[in-house]
Design a protein that fits this description.
Layout: E1 5-11, E2 22-30, E3 33-43, E4 48-49, E5 54-55, H1 60-85, H2 92-100, H3 109-122, H4 130-151, H5 163-175, H6 181-200, H7 226-234, H8 240-253, H9 259-264, E6 270-272, E7 278-283, E8 290-294, H10 297-305, H11 324-337, H12 346-358, H13 365-372, H14 377-400
Antiparallel strand pairs: 1-2, 2-3, 4-5, 6-7, 7-8
Amino acid sequence: MKNTFSLLFYLKKPKNYVAGSMPIYMRITVDGVPKELSIGKQCEPERWNPQINRVDGKKEDARTINAYLKIVEDKVDQAHTDLFKADKEITAVSLKNKFLGVEEEAHTLLTAFQDHNDKMEALIGKDFTEGTLSKYNTTLMHTTSFILHKFKVSDLLVEKVDNYFITEFDFYLRSKCGCANNAAVKHLKNLGKVIRICLANRWMTYDPFSGHKNKITKVQQVILTPTDIQAIYNKEFAIERLRIVRDAFIFCCYTGLSFIDLVELKRSEVVTGVDGSLWIIKKRHKSGIPCNVPLLPIALEIIERYADHPLCAGTDRVLPMNSNQKMNAYLKEVADISSVDMNLTFKVARVAFATTVTMGNGIPMESVSKMLGHASIKTTQIYAKIMDNKVGEDMERLKSSPKSPYHVSSICV
């Protein structure tokens, strides 16, 4: 990129100046932005020639100052050339620092990324969660392996990160790391946050994401029918760990709690509500927004079932929960044994509460939104759209089934 660059020497009147010599200053201007500094010499105003930026006369002191000004001028020109050859950003500040021999701190991508993650870790429990940090650490790991794979270096200057880097990283995530579209997009979004920090700090002047577009693929949500929920609830499990997972899943189906909110649920958060019945009154782990849910009979039954469990008795815990990874793995066994041909996760249970249990039974969207702890009803509207899609799919099957009385072949004209 070509810069407009100029250099000017001038006399600067000191504060409370009355008479005598004035200090000679140099003004470096790049793309209209000036930076000034004293060159350590002085001159009487009547001897200074502003047309040529030099001292008039042929006296020894005039020749000495003018020779010095020429050396300074040459050094600034050389500094400009060196920055250009090194493909460094040329600004009034960088040119001044180069002239003074001040080395600017080199900012690298992985160092900036690690600094971001370290600060995030320090704010866990305040602004961030362990899960969010884990996702950024995974992105950092992929970025580190990509730089080593593609550029054969351990780190990269942030100013070297361009659109080519982003495009190749996107390809690397999908080809080498086996990331599906949505996973790749999320890693790029995490990287994008670090890039925006670098841009804000003026460590880089070009946004490498400019012109790069990624689109999240809409995932078809699994919707449990009342029959599915009943089949899972009524199934007898000989293994205790599967009974616990089944009950935790059903509890989420009837309360809408996310997995982490269920893990953190305390008996002290099960209180008498405004209607005199028991409610869950708590704030969501993810957003801190209240989610106040009246407890349905099945949810109450499950709470009482584990009141004397060794992991709950004498504590404030409601259910004996395991890790999300293990419990989701056990849910696959629960689905198989219950003959429910679906990939069950605790996210599915939350969707079931929003669709099958509440909106499917006429509960207004505003009430559902409040119970789910959504910040905006627009988020809840997604579940309404899911239900519309489900209705459309069910009607289409009804119309297309040869055994249906509504199939075209069954209609008498």
